[in-house]
Every structure is written in structure tokens, then in C-alpha cells.
Specification:
196 residues, Rossmann fold, 5 strands, binds flavin mononucleotide, flavoprotein
Amino acid sequence: MTRRFLFLLGSSRSGGNTELLARRAAEQLPADVEQRWISLAEHPLPDFVDLRHDGDHVRPTEGNAALLLDATLAATDIVLATPLYWYSVSAHTKRYLDHWSAWLRTPGLDFKATLAGRTLWGVTALAHTETVVADPLIGTLNNSAAYLGMRFGGVLLGNGSGPGDVLNDEAALARAKTFFAREAPLARFPYETAAA
Ligand SMILES: Cc1cc2nc3c(=O)[nH]c(=O)nc-3n(C[C@H](O)[C@H](O)[C@H](O)COP(=O)(O)O)c2cc1C
């Protein structure tokens, strides 16, 4: 199957470090791999309303929710390109993930079955030099992938504060060259891997 990568840009500024790093990694994808790039800031989702136990969610047919849902369903690979904000994903990215909870409960979508076996990736810029502080973000993405039965390719981390700083992080640029070529195993919750 031809792979179709969906890059969801989660920064609150355009052209920032996360996007720069994601584009460096994407440059290495083979030419026959489709790439679609969507800025979540430029395509804001409505506030998430939890209707899960009040009745069925309805499939969005217009606006950014429909655009992002259709793009998500069409992707074989979803790349959450989110800066580290307060040690986790950005609000734009979190809101997109919250909408997964609606899409999981939308009749006729088969959201979980469609995403199962597909791959979730992360690309993240952060100002802190000790990358261990990004562990909560990595856990969020890993566990979300595990919940959906997806594969998880890990998170490409790069250092930077001001826009363009990440281009000075030679180690991150080197990791970007092979990031999408790596194996993406089926995601497992930590308690599953601990028991294995
Ligand atoms: C709201 C906000 C929260 C942030 N929280 C963190 C943080 O928890 N840890 C960190 O290392 N950097 C943090 N930063 C710094 C950004 O991760 C850093 O500037 C990064 O390069 C921004 O990525 P961007 O250029 O793609 O927007 C934060 C920045 C903002 C605006």
C-alpha cells in the first residue's frame, strides 16, 4: 500500500523549530510517499464537547473538523509535530486528540478499526537540553497509539527556543535523516511491556 503521511503542525507559531525539524525528516521520505501538511493553528477545531454518554456523536461534514477527520482517516502515518509545551503536547495538538474521543464514538466511522495497524509518530522541539523532560509527551503519544491499536514510531526530539535554533542541533538533524525509516512496532502500554 502506498504510504500517505499526514503532518499535523501543532505549534502556536508558523515556521518554528518543530516544523523545521519535521520538514528535515520528511525530506528523506521516498518520492512515492504522499505528504499532506496541515497547521492545526490555521485550521482550529471547535472546543471538544463530551457527548460520549449522552448519545451518538455526529460525523462532521464541514469545517475544520471534517477536514481533519477525513485527513486522519486517509493517512497511513500520522505525524504529530508539536512543540513541548509544559512538558506535554501543545493545546492545538491536545484538542485534536480530544476529538479522537468523539470520532471513536461516531457511528459509521469505524475510527478505531481504521487506525489500528497504522502508525503514529511525533516530532518535538523543546528548549530544555535534558530531553528526559519530554517523557510525559512521549508517554502521551505512545499510550494513545496503544489505545488505538496503532504502531508507534517514537518522537524525534530537537533542541531550540527561538525560531531556527533547532538547525544548530546537529544531532537532531542527523536523527531526522533516518527517523521515518525506523521500525514502528505495535504500541504497548508500559504495564504490558513490563510484564513481557
Ligand atoms: C506555552 C509554552 C510552553 C513551553 N513549555 C516548555 C516546556 O515545558 N519545556 C521546554 O523545554 N520548553 C518549553 N517551551 C519552549 C518551546 O518548546 C520551544 O521554544 C520550542 O522551540 C518551540 O517550538 P516551535 O518553534 O516549533 O514553536 C514552551 C514554550 C511555550 C510557548
